[in-house]
């Protein structure tokens, strides 16, 4: 349970990337690596986790730094948050379209990968490997203007018909 909470929290904070009730699926767009620049730099954020079946009520603070790999193939993000949890995430264009991310959560936990859809200023991390009847998680990050991020992580226990917020907050670029 703690590992699931850490994964979801880390994904939500980093992937601090955020949807509200039943949002329509984002429009498919080009997977230009430059779109990842929106998350470049150092970000300091804060948010609230709510008491749910998958999260414990608590205030959250995060400090995330994202830089390009030497050959600019990957955006590499190193995150620390107050749960405490650490996470390293690599973002890259997916040859099949959209983007992909690879995350290494708190040291010792199993790494995982997922899809990222960027449509305008909205980054959506759709449910990974949804299985009918099993809980699904998604994160939506919105960048209302350069240097600002609003994030939300939600879960559904009814195959996406209804979503419950488990984490929401904001982050600002500081460098």
* CATH level 4 superfamily: Calycin beta-barrel core domain
Helix content: under 10%
Sequence stretches where pLDDT stays below 50 over 5 or more residues: 1-29
Secondary-structure arrangement, i.e. CATH architecture? Beta Barrel
Portion of residues in beta strands equals over 45%
Structural class: mainly beta
Q: What's the alpha carbon Rg, rounded to whole Å? A: 15 Å
> What topology, given as strand order, has the largest sheet?
1-2-3-4-5-6-7-8-9-10
Which CATH class applies here?
Answer: Mainly Beta
Q: Please tell me what the overall shape is.
A: globular
Number of DSSP E strands: 10
Distance between the termini: 35 Å
Domain tally: 1
Quote the average pLDDT: 84
| CATH fold topology | Lipocalin
Compressed to H and E, one letter per element, the order equals HEEEEEEEEEE
> Helical element count?
1
Describe this structure in words.
The protein is mainly beta and 175 residues long. It has a single domain, classed as Calycin beta-barrel core domain (Lipocalin). It has one helix and ten strands. The protein has one helix spanning 2-14; strands at 41-49, 58-68, 75-81, 85-93, 99-104, 112-119, 122-125, 136-142, 148-156, 164-173. The protein has a ten-stranded antiparallel beta barrel with strand order 1-2-3-4-5-6-7-8-9-10. A hairpin with an 8-residue loop joins strand 1 and strand 2 (58-68). The N and C termini lie far apart (35 Å). The model is unreliable at 1-29 (pLDDT under 50).
Keywords:
Lipocalin; ten-stranded antiparallel beta barrel; 1 helix; 10 strands; mainly beta; 175 residues
């Amino acid at each position: 349970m703690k590992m699931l909470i850490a994964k979801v929290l880390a994904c939500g904070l980093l992937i601090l990337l955020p949807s509200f009730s039943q949002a329509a699926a984002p429009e498919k767009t080009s997977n230009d690596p430059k779109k990842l620049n929106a998350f470049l730099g150092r970000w300091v954020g804060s948010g609230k986790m709510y008491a749910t079946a998958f999260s414990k009520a608590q205030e959250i603070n995060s400090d995330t730094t994202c830089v390009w790999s030497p050959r600019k193939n990957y955006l590499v993000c190193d995150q620390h948050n107050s749960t405490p949890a650490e996470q390293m995430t690599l973002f890259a264009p997916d040859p099949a379209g959209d983007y992909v991310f690879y995350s290494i959560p708190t040291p010792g936990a199993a790494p995982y990968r997922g899809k990222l859809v960027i449509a305008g200023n909205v980054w959506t991390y759709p449910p990974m490997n949804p299985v009918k009847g099993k809980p699904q998680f998604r994160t939506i990050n919105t960048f209302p203007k350069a240097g600002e991020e609003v994030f939300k992580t939600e879960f559904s226990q009814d195959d996406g018909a209804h979503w419950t917020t488990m984490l929401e907050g904001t982050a600002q670029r500081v460098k």
